[in-house]
Amino acid sequence: MARQFLFTRFAGKSLASLRNDDRGVTAIEFAMIAPILIGMAISIYDLGSGVYFDTQLSNGAQSGAYYAVEYGYSLAGVTGAVENASRLAGVAVSSGQFCGCPQGSGAVIQVACTSTCTDGLVAGKFVQVSASKDYRPLLPYPGLPDVFHLSKQATVRVQ
C-alpha cells in the first residue's frame, strides 16, 4: 500500500520538478540546528548556576558579617547566618575576630589590639567572615577548569 502511494505520487513528476520541490526543508533545517540550540541552552543554564552559587556565597558572607554587627560575634551564630542566607548545601564557613587599623584604600591592616593607628586612633575590633564552596559544571568546557573554587569574604568593624 505504501509503495503504491509513493509510486502514484511521483509517477507523473519529472526529476527536475522533484529537485525544485521544497516541502520539508524547514523540518530538515530545524533538525540540523536543534542540537546546537539545546547545547547552548544547557551551557547557559550550567554556567548561570555557577554565577548563582557565587552570588549566594556573597550573600551568605555579608549576612554573617551583619549578624556579628547586630548581635555580637558568635561562631555558631555567624555560621548559621551564612548557611541560612546562602541557601546552598555544603558551604564551608570560617570566621574570626581581629584588631586592625583601617586604611584609606578600604583595606584593614591587622595589628595588636592595644596599638595606635597612623591616624592616632586606637585599633578597632573587626570580624571577618569567609564562605566557600566548589562548583562543578555539568559539562566539561574547553579552556575552563573542571572545578571552580568559589570564595567570598566580608569584613566589618564591630567596635
Care to describe what's here?
By secondary structure, this protein is α+β, with helices and mostly antiparallel strands. It has one domain (14-157). Helix content is 46%, strand content 23%. It has four helices and four strands. It has helices at residues 2-10, 15-19, 25-71, 75-86; strands at 92-102, 108-110, 124-135, 148-157.
Features:
rod-shaped; 159 residues; 4-stranded antiparallel β-sheet
Give the percentage of residues in beta strands. 15-25%
Quickly count the helices.
Answer: 4
Order of helices and strands: HHHHEEEE
Whole-number total of structural domains: 1
Structural class: alpha+beta
Mean pLDDT equals 87
Give unreliable regions as ranges.
none
The general outline is rod-shaped
What is the strand tally?
A: 4
Tell me the helix content: 40-55%
The end-to-end distance, rounded to whole angstroms, is 90 Å
Strand arrangement, major sheet: 2-1-3-4
The description of the largest β-sheet is: 4 strands, antiparallel
How would you summarize this macromolecular structure in one to three sentences?
With 159 residues, the protein is an alpha+beta fold.
Question: Secondary structure elements and their pairing?
Answer:
Layout: H1 2-10, H2 15-19, H3 25-71, H4 75-86, E1 92-102, E2 108-110, E3 124-135, E4 148-157
Antiparallel strand pairs: 1-2, 1-3, 3-4
Helix pairs in contact: 3-4
